[in-house]
Structure formats: C-alpha cells, structure tokens
Write a structure and sequence with these properties.
alpha+beta; Uridine Diphospho-n-acetylenolpyruvylglucosamine Reductase, domain 2; Uridine Diphospho-n-acetylenolpyruvylglucosamine Reductase, domain 3; Vanillyl-alcohol Oxidase, Chain A, domain 3; 7-stranded antiparallel sheet; about 20% strand; binds flavin-adenine dinucleotide
Length: about 450
C-alpha cells in the first residue's frame, strides 16, 4: 500500500494528516471495555478525509483501491465495540458532512448517511410532525448511517423492535470499494447485507427510513424498593399496547442514586424505572403504577430538556454505562439477551447469582413479536478471566451475550457472517479494504459460524 500516493490523488479534498489530530480523530468508544482499551490503544489512521459531496466520497474508495489503502467509514464515532477502529491504519472516511435530506413523505424520509439523528428528527418534525421510529441514546452525536452500520436498537425499540426487523430500514444507497466504485441501491432482504456490518461491505451514502408520528413525550422516573417488583411493572407496562411509549428501562439500586441522578429524588435503596410515554398516555401510566408497589419520583417533558439538561434517554441504553464510568473507571458492562417468554425468571436467577458484582440495567424491547429484555448490565471488573466466567455463566443459563469486549462482527455475536455475506463482500470489496480486521469469516477462510445465537442472521 502507498498511502502517500493515495492521499496525493485526494489532495484537493479535506485531508487531515497532522499526526496528533489524526490520532485524536481515529478512536471511537472502544475504551468502554478494559480489554479493548488494552488491545486497541495504539490504533490510529494515517489520515482523516472529510468529503463534502457524494462525488467527493466516490473518489476515496477509487483511490484507496488503486493503492490498496484501508478505508474505515466514520459517522459520529460513538461505536462502543471498537467497531470503527481503523485496525490497519489508512483512511478514516468521515461522512459527517453528507447530511442532506433528499425528501420527506408521509411515513418516510430519504437522507444522506452523515446526518445526525437529532438534526434529522428536528427537520422531519418541522416538516410534518414525524420522527424516527427508533434511535440510539446517542441521538445528538450519532449519525443515521453509523447507527445502521453499527447499531442495533434503542429508544423506540419497545414499540418498533430492532433495526434488524423487516420494515425498519426501507432502502440503502451504498458505494462499493472497486477501481470504479459502483452505486448500489439495496432494498428488501438485501438491506441485511449492510445493516450492522460495521461498514465492511459498502460505504452507506443514503438511507430511506420509515417515520412515526411525532408526539410530545413525557418522561418519568419511577422508584421501587423491590427490584423484582420493578421488573414486573416494566414488563406489565411493556405489554400495555394502548400506552404509546418509547422507553422502558430498569436500573437496579443503588446505581440510580450513586451514579445517575441523586438530585431527582430517588432513594438509594430504590430501583429506577425510566419511562417515556406520549403526553396523552401519562394518566394511563399512573393508573397502571397504582397497581404496583412503586412511586412517581420525577416527571417532565423531553422537550423541556434544554440548556445543557439531559433528556432522560441519555441515562438509558449505553449512556447508563457512560455515567457509571464517570464515577468509577473500574466499571465495565455486558450486552445480554434475556429471551422471552421467561425473561423475568432468567433476570431473577442472574440477579441472585451475581448480586452487587453485576448491577442490572435492563431495556425492555419488542422482540420477534414478543416482549423481551436486553441487559446492559454494569460489571465490576476484576480480571479478563472473571469477565469470561460471568459471560459463560450467562450463556449456560440461556442468556446469550453480545460480547462488547470483542471487535469482530462474529465475536461480538450480533452478526452471523455466512456464505451470502461473504459472497457480497467479494462483490463489494474484493480486496478486503473496508474496515479490515472486523469480519473473521473474511480474514480466515477456515472460519465457520458457530452454533451460538446471533442477533442478526444474514437473511
Ligand atoms: C453513550 C453511548 C450510547 C449508545 N447507545 C446506543 C443505543 O441506544 N443503541 C445502539 O444500537 N447503539 C448505541 N450505541 C452505539 C453507537 O452509538 C450507535 O451505534 C451509533 O448510532 C453509531 O453512530 P455513529 O455515527 O457514531 O457511528 P460510528 O461510531 O462512526 O460508526 C459505527 C460503525 O459503522 C461504520 N460506519 C459509520 N458510518 C458508515 C457509513 N456511512 N457507511 C458504512 N459504515 C459506516 C463505522 O465504520 C463503524 O464500524 C451507543 C454508544 C455510546 C457510546
């Protein structure tokens, strides 16, 4: 590879090669994991290229292909599995300047990949009171392209399910990594080739997504002295189909008081249930709460979170871990599926097994037509061996872990790279230059998918 020759071809684009700046702009949130922190700390790109138009983007894979330079696409850089780390150097392709909305219709939008999700929602709400069905808790900083390439679920998943679900992505425009990069429009089942593939088999330049009606969202913290009672309430709320909701989160005591929001009136012994419901559904929420042993601790509307005040969802999903890490750098986390229909029993078993070593943080979601739970448990980290043991015990108890301490698609456990995925990779990235090192099945021809559960099967 000759990165200098490659960059010389791109010299009229915004190319940053200043080593300190490139080193600062190379990482994502890999450091969430103590294991990835050790493994990836020295990783840096050779340059960051920031195209201002799709015509400029096309020139990057074309030049990189000629000179065999790796290219790792970058949106907001909030990926937390090290998925966006430029393992083999080369170019970080920053697509954050590509944010144009191509059109908005009733029920859908077409937008370039670099648009920040909060800015996309602001535009569709202003246009026609519509918003994204689901978004990660990194709504403000993540891009819509990065979410589809690297994310999976989030705020809204309690009503709309996961990004993997048919109908949650309508179309993707991608660029291949070839001498003459092709523009492909993926629709239907083909979308899954690129959805959650970490940008290993195409650079997403535009997306067509369904929209939901935008409502005024009421957000509340509810307190429960009994953890199991909090879980039962959250499960009951998740099943109330007529209460329109966006968030049902359970965070075990004493995390809410110690690390999240002591100033909002939660007691140290209380487990918090965080909820977002449509304003007109708030009364119904309180009706349901009266049937359970919990109390309303705090309430506001999400649109009142202005002037540096955080919306409640910025304490949910992977933000819970971020707040905990600010208090204690020895904390890390897991990402677990508590499968239906006996997710509450499995949660109770893991709570009893690990106690204070693994404080539970649960996100209730609609999962294959049922209600299930993702655990983004916090873990008091002692050693790699102990962490591996905790993971093994969860898996043995029927709770698959999507391991956030591994940076490949397969080891992370969310994406099954099968023959179809590999065939598409051969077509879209024949030299294996896109986000190299993240797809085991490509790196090692003898690698075979294991029998473990994957969140994303290829089709
Ligand atoms: C505090 C915090 C909270 C989070 N909450 C959630 C959550 O609720 N739900 C969730 O699913 N995830 C969550 N994540 C993970 C991450 O934020 C999301 O996946 C996010 O949407 C990524 O967007 P990004 O623009 O920052 O992507 P980046 O981090 O820039 O990229 C993510 C991956 O996609 C690739 N990529 C980026 N843009 C493109 C493109 N245009 N074409 C091809 N590949 C591309 C990158 O190479 C990388 O592999 C969270 C992470 C953090 C740190």
């Amino acid at each position: 590879m000759s990165i200098d020759a490659c960059l010389a071809e791109l010299s009229d684009l915004a190319v940053d090669t200043q080593p300190q700046r490139v080193r600062r702009r190379s990482p994502d949130f890999y450091w969430y994991s103590p294991i990835l922190e050790r493994r990836l700390d020295a990783v840096t790109a050779d340059a960051v290229v920031t195209p201002r138009s799709e015509e400029e983007v096309v020139r990057v894979p074309a030049a990189a292909y000629r000179h065999e330079g790796p290219v790792t696409a970058r949106g907001g850089g909030t990926g937390n599995y090290g998925r966006g780390m430029p393992l083999r150097g080369g170019i970080v392709l920053d697509i954050s300047e590509l944010g144009a909305i191509e059109w908005i219709e009733h029920g859908r939008v077409r937008v370039q990949a670099g648009r920040k999700m909060a800015e996309l929602d602001a535009a569709t709400i202003a246009h026609s009171r519509q918003e994204l069905r689901l978004h990660p808790s990194t709504h403000k900083t993540g891009t819509i392209g990065g979410y589809v390439a690297g994310g999976s679920s989030g705020v809204g998943s309690i009503t709309w399910g996961l990004l993997r679900d048919r109908g949650n992505i309508l179309g993707l425009r991608i660029l291949t990594m070839e001498a003459k990069p092709r523009v492909l429009e993926l629709r239907g089942a083909d979308i899954q080739k690129v959805n959650h593939a970490y940008g290993t088999n195409g650079i997403v330049t535009a997306l067509e997504l369904p929209l939901a009606p935008a409502h005024r969202w009421a957000e509340a913290i509810l307190g429960f002295e009994d953890f199991a009672a909090a879980c039962r309430f959250a499960d009951a709320l998740a099943r109330e189909d007529a209460i329109l909701k966006k968030l049902v989160t359970v965070i075990q005591a004493p995390v809410p008081y110690d690390w999240l929001f002591p100033e909002r009136g939660i007691a140290r012994e209380e487990t918090a249930v965080l909820v977002m419901v449509a304003d007109f559904a708030f009364e119904a929420l309180l009706d349901l709460l009266r049937l359970h042993p919990g109390r309303l601790v705090w309430q506001r509307f999400t649109d009142e979170a202005t002037g540096g005040r955080l919306p409640l969802f910025e304490y949910s999903w992977n933000h819970t871990t971020l707040h905990a890490l600010k208090h204690d750098r020895t904390i890390t986390y897991l990402q677990t599926l508590f499968p239906p229909p006996d997710h509450l029993d499995r949660i109770a078993a893991m709570a009893a097994r690990f106690g204070e070593e693994v404080p539970l943080h649960l996100e209730f979601v609609r999962f294959g037509g049922q209600i299930a739970c993702f655990g983004l448990q916090l873990v008091r980290y002692w050693s790699d061996e102990r962490l591996a043991r905790i993971i093994e015990e969860h898996e043995a108890a029927g709770c698959p872990i999507f391991n956030p301490h591994a940076f490949t698609l397969e080891d992370g456990g969310m994406k099954k790279v099968d023959a179809l995925q590999l065939a598409f990779k051969r077509e879209a990235d024949p030299k294996g230059l896109l986000d190299p090192g993240k797809m085991l099945g490509w790196e090692n021809p003898d690698w075979r998918p294991s029998e473990r559960a994957f969140l994303y099967e290829a089709h």
